[in-house]
Amino acid sequence: MPLIRVQDLVKTYRVGDVDVRALRGVTLGFAPGSFTAVMGPSGSGKSTFLHCAAGLDRPTSGTVWLDGVELGSLRESALTRLRRDRVGFIFQAFNLLPALTVTQNVTLPLRLAGRRPHRGQVNEVLERVGLADRRKHLPAQLSGGQQQRVAIARALIARPAVIFADEPTGALDTRTAGEILGLLREPVRILGQTVVMVTHDPVAASYADRVVFLADGRFVGGLDRPTPEAVAERMTHLGDWALVRD
């Protein structure tokens, strides 16, 4: 069974007097212990898809199952608890609190959930992301790559079933981006967690096990064992109305 499944997902936004349909009946599944990249042209619905699949936004119609739970059936308080306990988030902008140290930023999700962080667990996750010697630093004292490592540690600390990443390397140089993508593979390889990553970069997508493509709000194909060259070639054929099939 997929850990995440979306069925006939539709999302429409009202912009002035016009309805803009960002997603047009997307059906996809993501297996446990998999790393999937989501790609498509600008405006294809990638981020909207991620936000709906992660329970950050409610679809106009369609169904989302996450770790066996149908999200549409949940009240907002229950949805918040599920996101807090079962989902990790990583964003391009890092979203760290500037007045908190590395350790305080990493353990914030646990504290918000009323759970006392275990020192050994905190030490382990900081070691994994290479920040054991930066635990008392503030975000302003870190490089962009180090700040993204803090965000990864924060996403990992509760050991969620799935991690959603929205352009996690978009603000980083090539070498640092490669290090961050290597870190994102670790929870998949070591702990069997699931990672779903939106990206525009064929090199970033090549770190995934599979790439799924969206165009004009529709699922238009997938690519297993991607290479940068194969992803880039596929992207060149994705237009607003292109249908790309395996």
Structural class by sheet pairing and helices: alpha/beta
Strand line-up across the major sheet = 6-7-8-3-9-10
The unreliable regions are 240-246
Outline, from the CA principal axes?
globular
Give a quick account of the main beta sheet: strands, pairing sense, barrel closure. Answer: 6 strands, mixed
Strand content: 25-35%
How many strand segments? 10
Second-tier CATH architecture:
3-Layer(aba) Sandwich
Question: Can you write the helix and strand succession as a string?
Answer: EEEHEEHEHHHEHEHEEH
CATH homologous superfamily classification? P-loop containing nucleotide triphosphate hydrolases
Number of domains: 1
The average pLDDT value, as a whole number, equals 91
- In whole angstroms, the N-to-C terminal distance is 22 Å
Instruction: Count the DSSP helices.
Output: 8
CATH class placement: Alpha Beta
Summarize the topology.
Elements: E1 4-15, E2 18-30, E3 35-39, H1 46-53, E4 61-66, E5 69-70, H2 76-86, E6 87-91, H3 102-112, H4 119-128, H5 144-156, E7 162-166, H6 174-191, E8 194-198, H7 202-205, E9 210-215, E10 218-224, H8 228-236
Parallel strand pairs: 3-8, 3-9, 6-7, 7-8
Antiparallel strand pairs: 1-2, 1-4, 4-5, 9-10
Helix pairs in contact: 3-5, 5-6
